[in-house]
Design goal:
The chain has 479 residues and is an all-alpha fold. It is built from 20 helices and no strands. Helices cover 73% and strands 0% of the residues. The protein has a single domain, classed as Up-down Bundle (Growth Hormone, Chain: A).
């Protein structure tokens, strides 16, 4: 009689050092994500405080220019740092990328014009894009094949903690009336000569971006170069065809197909993340505002009449006076979406290990399209959105963990960080026109929610790209 052996757990046999690598990589990505999302959490306060009254109608465009600058910077950073990582090593390059994004996030706190902030977002993103490319390659090379998908998903899903950190800062620092009162107190009178006191909360939020630089110490003292990278360096010394970090090779032979597929998936993911996913939080804000307007109109119909110009102005004034309250609704929406995102990214690895990378990408993309259309039609249902937004987050950005799992499997060691960084961050670059288009149509009378709904159709391109992709489940990393 045959007795079936129990399936070995993915984490069985994982060494202490491998866990340390994963921990440092995910903390780096956590802060990486925080540096990106702190702008999303504060852009309703930051950009308006840096714009003259005559240009208020241009704020949506300025926001999207800043987001676009971040994507462009991330694209270049991922490519440049990825190549450097393949050439000089993962450890030193990761440390420098973390220092880079920490310093420029801190510098953002001193912005005096909206374009100062946009330019600094570009430099922040250089480090952010680079750190992801290096860390994802590092994790893939250190963990065995049976654990690679799980470790990659855990690594990428840790970014949710960075988003939650930005949510906390948005709710308890930027949107906190007590903090605002303190910023207007005599204690900080000396700062009022340089900046508007109303802008101090978001400036403090950006200043906290310097804290991740502490992580550099752990990178330099606890991490060591992967053995596969060392062997690739030795091969490169004796064989000119095995050069490391040669970006041109991504566009030749069998690697060209992998590069096209990787860039396509990342472009769809980046365009929909910044054009659809981040606005999930606004559905709850909009529903809360609409619910409040209905209550005001019912209580004092003559004063708060949403039809008359005077009534509209009274409603606008009331909503402005309750800005802190609605900021919390916005941050609650961001929290719900982010929790769903984290679970979705954690689940990508186990699911892709079970049904394959390609099928998992298809499930996430098609599900995203359906849930986005439903969520953006909720105009006044606060309760339904409390249930719907975690599902929205699960699907609309859950597939991003797949990039950390799938992209490193497409390239040999000598090009792994270069290829992974190029795919992920070239996708950011291709998403930039989508952001500019979104900002432009908002300045021409199209609402934010309508724009996000239109961009949801981009999810349908995901299964098309996956159709031409190769399956890497169960295969060893290329050497």
């Amino acid at each position: 009689m045959n007795i079936s052996q129990p399936e070995e757990r993915w984490y069985t046999g994982i060494t202490r050092y491998q866990w340390i690598v994963l921990l440092i990589a995910l903390v780096g990505w956590l802060f990486d994500t925080f540096e990106g999302q702190i702008f999303v959490a504060s852009m309703r306060e930051a950009v308006p405080s840096l714009v003259d009254a005559d240009f208020v109608d241009k704020i949506p465009l300025y926001n999207n220019i800043a987001l676009g600058a971040f994507l462009i910077g991330g694209a270049l950073g991922g490519i440049i740092f990825g190549m450097i990582s393949d050439k000089i090593g993962r450890k030193r390059t990761m440390a420098f990328s973390i220092l880079f994004y920490s310093f420029f996030t801190w510098m953002s706190a001193f912005s005096q014009e909206w374009w100062h902030l946009a330019c600094l977002r570009f430099f922040v993103a250089l480090g952010v894009g680079g750190e992801w490319a290096i860390a994802s390659a590092f994790v893939a090379e250190v963990f065995p094949g049976k654990a690679r998908a799980h470790a990659g998903s855990i690594f990428h899903a840790s970014g949710v903690l960075g988003t939650l950190l930005s949510v906390a800062i948005g709710a308890f620092l930027i949107g906190n009336p007590a903090v605002m009162n303190w910023c207007n107190s005599p204690v900080l009178d000396w700062t009022h000569r340089f900046v508007d006191p109303a802008s101090l909360p978001w400036r403090f939020g950006f200043a906290l971006g310097l804290l991740p630089s502490v992580l550099i110490v752990f990178v330099l003292f606890y991490m060591k170069e992967p053995e596969s990278w060392k062997k690739a360096q030795e091969r490169a010394k004796t064989d000119s065809s095995q050069k490391t970090g040669n970006i041109a090779e991504l566009f030749h032979g069998a690697m060209l197909r992998s590069t096209i597929i990787g860039v396509s998936l990342a472009a769809i993911g980046m365009a929909t993340f910044w054009g659809v996913h981040i606005y999930g939080k606004d559905t709850l804000l909009r529903a809360a505002e609409n619910q409040t307007v209905l209550k005001l109109a019912a209580a004092e119909p003559e004063k708060y009449n949403p039809v008359t110009d005077l009534g509209k102005q009274e409603i606008k004034n009331y909503l402005k006076t309750e800005q802190g309250q609605f900021k919390r609704w916005e941050m609650l929406g961001m929290l719900l979406v982010t929790v769903g995102l984290g679970i979705g990214q954690l689940y990508f690895g186990p699911l892709s290990q079970k049904i394959g990378r390609r099928k998992t990408f298809v499930v996430y993309h098609l599900g995203s399209f359906v849930i986005a259309l439903v969520a953006f039609q909720m105009t006044s249902g606060v309760i339904p959105l409390l249930i719907l937004l975690p599902i929205f987050g699960f699907l609309t950005a859950g597939m991003h963990a797949g990039y950390a799992v799938y992209f490193p499997e497409l390239y040999p060691t000598r090009l792994r960080s270069t290829g992974t960084g190029f795919c992920f961050n070239a996708g950011r670059l291709l998403a930039v026109p989508v952001l500019f288009f979104t900002g432009w149509i908002q300045t021409n009378g199209i609402t934010l929610i309508t724009a996000a709904t239109l961009l949801s159709f981009l999810y349908l391109l995901g299964p098309v790209a996956v159709y031409f992709a190769q399956e890497t489940k169960g295969k060893e990393l290329l050497t």
